[in-house]
């Protein structure tokens, strides 16, 4: 039951009826989102829950690790009154089946122990490591995981609830940055089908979520500390507790005239978090981050957006004050990134 990951089209084994058949002997399902889940992950989880319940699964729990800190993501959860729980590894021993949506490998961007058996994986990302599941649908030709799940619903003649429709439409907008970043015709078609099912005012309220003061300060710091070489920019948000401030800063800085590739880093806990964006068709920023930081942490993503996480202790003494840490880490992060892009120090 594996999808064709090259074309993005599902094989005959990966289809709605096969997924329903996989659930027919299951009474409890744990849908695990990735750490700090975004709307695409959460909307996909809601869609999978709809499919599982239609197949007779009695208990479907949606869980996640990390924290939901992005203000729009918090508004998304609160306005839709989503029933979510924090992931506890002990839950793995109490359910019949475990599913991943919008991520695929235990221990990579999730809190599930490495080596855990996962029964269902549905995702649109590409992975260097092998992906294994009893039911696997991995379509890198899609711009969002929720698109795959909504096609499943359509194939099963299941209409999304108003809650799911709103979640899915907002997820499509966020995942593609309002249909600017890499949408396919599939995303447009799915969005068009959702329009008559959603409360437009609810979508506006999700978009209207305000920045937290910390996020605003982080974006300001990223603007202040930017370094540009050629069309590439590297910047720091300093030390933050809101990890989602990094991609927001990266998205904003990509609008700077003459800049086509952005890397933003910040200190979050005992790690250096990375967020990268690119609109340069010659650059696969996911592969660029993998090659640049594979020896010191985990990094990767898509051709136009990527992220990473590096242990802070590999770069600097964590006992130093934050100003020294950020400066020290910034020199090394920036040097690695610019060198990988063959952009020498202008001095």
Summary, kept brief:
Residues 231-312 form the DHHA1 domain. By secondary structure, the protein is an alpha/beta fold. It has helices spanning 16-23, 39-54, 71-79, 145-155, 162-175, 185-194, 200-207, 213-224, 245-253, 285-293, 322-340; strands spanning 28-32, 59-64, 85-86, 97-101, 120-123, 135-138, 227-229, 232-239, 261-268, 271-278, 298-301, 305-311.
Structure overview:
α2 runs antiparallel to α5. Residues 1-7 have low confidence and may be disordered. The chain is globular. The longest helix has 19 residues, at 322-340. The strands form 2 sheets. The chain has a 6-stranded parallel sheet, with helices on one face. It has a 6-stranded mixed sheet with strand order 7-8-9-10-12-11, sandwiched between helices. With 347 residues, it is of the alpha/beta class. It is 36% helix and 18% strand. It starts with 15 loop residues before the first helix and ends in a 7-residue tail after the last helix. Residues 29-167 form the DDH domain. It comes from Halogranum amylolyticum.
């Amino acid at each position: 039951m594996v999808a064709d990951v090259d074309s993005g089209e599902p094989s005959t084994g990966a289809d709605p009826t096969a997924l329903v058949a996989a659930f027919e002997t299951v009474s409890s399902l744990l849908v695990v989102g990735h750490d700090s889940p975004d709307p695409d992950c959460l909307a996909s989880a809601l869609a999978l829950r709809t499919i599982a319940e239609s197949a007779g699964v009695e208990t479907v729990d949606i869980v996640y690790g990390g924290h939901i800190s992005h203000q729009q993501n918090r508004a998304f959860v609160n306005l839709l009154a989503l029933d979510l729980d924090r992931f506890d590894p002990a839950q793995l021993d109490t359910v019949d089946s475990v599913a991943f949506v919008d991520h695929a490998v235990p221990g990579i961007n999730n809190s599930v122990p490495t080596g855990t058996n996962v029964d269902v994986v549905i995702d649109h990302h590409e992975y260097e490591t092998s992906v294994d599941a009893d039911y696997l649908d991995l379509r890198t030709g899609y711009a969002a995981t929720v698109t795959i799940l909504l096609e499943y619903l359509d194939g099963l003649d299941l209409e999304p609830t108003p809650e799911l429709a709103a979640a899915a439409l907002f997820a499509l907008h966020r995942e593609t940055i309002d249909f600017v970043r890499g949408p396919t015709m599939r995303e447009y078609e799915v969005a068009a089908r959702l329009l008559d099912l959603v409360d437009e005012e609810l979508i506006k309220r999700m978009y209207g979520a305000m920045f937290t003061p910390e996020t605003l300060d982080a974006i300001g710091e990223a603007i202040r500390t930017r370094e540009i070489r050629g069309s590439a920019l590297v910047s720091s948000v300093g030390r933050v507790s809101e990890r989602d401030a990094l991609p927001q800063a990266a998205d904003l800085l990509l609008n700077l005239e003459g800049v086509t590739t952005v890397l933003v880093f910040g200190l979050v806990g005992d790690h250096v978090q990375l967020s990268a964006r690119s609109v340069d068709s010659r650059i696969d920023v996911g592969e660029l981050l993998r090659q640049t930081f594979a020896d010191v942490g985990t990094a990767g993503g898509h051709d136009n957006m990527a992220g990473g996480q590096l242990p802070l202790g590999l770069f600097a003494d964590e006992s130093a004050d934050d100003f020294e840490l950020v400066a020290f880490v910034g020199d090394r992060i920036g040097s690695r990134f610019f060198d990988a892009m063959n952009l020498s120090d202008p001095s």
